[in-house]
Amino acid sequence: MNIKNLFFPLLVVVALAALSFGRLQELGNKGSTLYLTEDFRGAQLLRQGGTKRTWREETRIKTLSIESRPDVTLYGPLHLRIDDDDNLLVRDSGDLAIKTFDAEGRLLRIYGQVRGQGPGEFASLTDAALGPNGEVWAADATNGRITIFNPDGEIRQTLRMPLPPYRLSVGHQGDGFFVMNTPGSELFARFDAAGDRLATFGTFLENQGVNAMALDGLIEPDGDGGFIYGARYAGLLAGYDSSGTVRFFAETVDHQGLPKLNRNGGQTWIDRETVITIHSLSVTSEGLHVLATEEEGFRLRGAIDTYSLSDGRYLYSRRLPEACTSVKLSTHHLYTVTETHISRWTLTHG
């Protein structure tokens, strides 16, 4: 056979091999392969990444602003929880404190503010939640414990946790709670009210123990004893019932695949160019609400995307009333959180 006749086929094979190798490198750079496991029997991944947003028109009127003043300082509010009376629980990263306000913006109480390992002190404050009777729950991943405060500020209980409690969701009747842990082969654990572990679940990735950082995210109670999980970088939503059984598993409209993990020695971190797809998460009877970043031409602006609580299906989006780092929706209001203040907005649909 003439060697010239082999040249073109060989060239094609080499080109295809190079493309395949490049594709494998690209997939590897995105992180571990996502796959369905026993946690997701009967719950197919709802693929909706790239869905075009549908905008909901409404009028927003600011009705409250909370900022630093003589009786309280906001050093760096990160996250809100809201009860049925529109009282606010604010997790402040600046002084490791939990600050509560009533519906008029009056300061009710401050929990924490002391760094340490003693009772009521925090070495870190990775999440805070409201119990059904006004108790305040605080997750301290560094100290490996959850502290439960009575509404008057007294410590009710300190729970030493088997793994660092990164995120926290408290059941609506106070009969149990869920914890999210970033290390380990299973992302979530379910506990009874006494702090005894009942179950662990949530395996999304191959070799999840070393790749779990790609699943960094938030959890919120769903109002029916379960919780909603949102993966900040991966753009994934999952709903679990009160027993820890998955109800749905869905992509956000901004889903781009798993983030790239960089490693150096014993350290692992998410690549700095990775875009956060879920900045904050909140749940109302209207649906679950995600603060996302939308590209508009050459600009980036915030969008609040709403998904169905029953199956994670995308419903519609809202424009933000102001630039912010976090958003919370309640039955009656929209709250925006910036580095210096918290605003409440009353919404009127157009």
Your description of this structure?
With 350 residues, the chain is mainly beta. It has one domain: Neuraminidase (6 Propeller). The strands form seven sheets. It has a five-stranded mixed β-sheet, with no helix packed on it. A four-stranded antiparallel β-sheet has the order 2-27-26-25, with no helix packed on it. It has a four-stranded antiparallel β-sheet with strand order 3-4-5-6, with no helix packed on it. Helices cover 9% and strands 43% of the residues. A hairpin with a 5-residue loop joins strand 11 (167-170) and strand 12. It is globular and about 50 Å long.
Give the helix level as a range of percent. under 10%
| Number of strand segments | 27
CATH fold name: Neuraminidase
Radius of gyration from the alpha-carbon trace, in angstroms: 22 Å
Tell me the CATH superfamily.
Answer: TolB, C-terminal domain
Low-confidence stretches: 1-33
Structural class: mainly beta
String of helices and strands: HEEEEEEEEEEEEEEHEEEEEEEEEEEEE
How many domains is the backbone divided into? 1
Helical segment tally? 2
What CATH architecture do you see? 6 Propeller
Note the overall shape.
Answer: globular
- Cross-sheet strand order for the largest sheet: 1-18-17-16-15
* Mean pLDDT across all amino acids: 85
Task: Compile the SSE list and pairings.
Layout: H1 3-29, E1 45-46, E2 58-67, E3 77-82, E4 88-92, E5 97-101, E6 107-112, E7 127-130, E8 136-140, E9 145-149, E10 155-160, E11 167-170, E12 176-180, E13 188-192, E14 197-201, H2 208-211, E15 217-221, E16 227-231, E17 236-240, E18 246-251, E19 261-264, E20 267-270, E21 280-284, E22 287-296, E23 299-307, E24 314-319, E25 326-329, E26 333-337, E27 341-349
